[in-house]
# Entry
Amino acid sequence: MKIATWNVNSIRTRLEQVIDWLGQNPVDILCLQETKVVDADFPRSPLEDLGYHLYISGQKSYNGVALVSQKPLANVTMGFTPILPEIDPIWDEQKRVITGVMDGVRILNLYVPNGSSVGSEKYDFKLRWLTVLRKYLQTLLSSESAICMCGDFNIALEARDIHEKVKVENHIMASEAERQALKDILELGFADAFRKFTSEGGHYSWWDYRTAAFRRNQGWRIDHHYLTPTLYDRAASCIIDITPRKLTQPSDHTPVIVEF
# Structure
């Protein structure tokens, strides 16, 4: 099984790039973030005509997540509330969570809030959102053991996940509170698939459009696959494919693929 995560920064803008990439990388499931389109306007036909099954949760201009699968998925849900019906519906107003099961493996596709700037209202929302995510995962883990949690986490957990020339002091995506919130989640029983195979720095999944960051490789590793122990043991590889980032008008993110 191969699972890829990719923040495409608008599926309609990047549709041909996604189709071309799938043609060269026929993963079992492609997890998309920032689709930026309401469900009715999602470009379904080009992908369905290729035989893919689509599960989408989108909104206009912002956010949006989708699962593109070679086989039908079971137990597909969108948002936190199907698992946590007691929480405030405000946490699902932004379309950031979608999950489904293939061959006994639950794939949880996330688009974690960016947070804007440290200390802002959006930053506080991000930290509280991560607290809700932790509770959500606790509920899932009470009945399931094979979970691949992936997506754009908007957090670089360690210094080696950021180019050394990037100024990170008090920087969003690298603050201590964000990192601790993610560590608290991982302590539930998740491990970083990429770090199973690659320990050194210099590997990134996002580069700012500004300041020629990609040309200089001044990037961040903020797109992750986190696995429960049963999947971590089975993981055979996890790679970052920078090829799509070299294209004309690319997403600022690039795919990350894990294989079991």
Q: What stands out?
A: The longest helix spans residues 121-141.
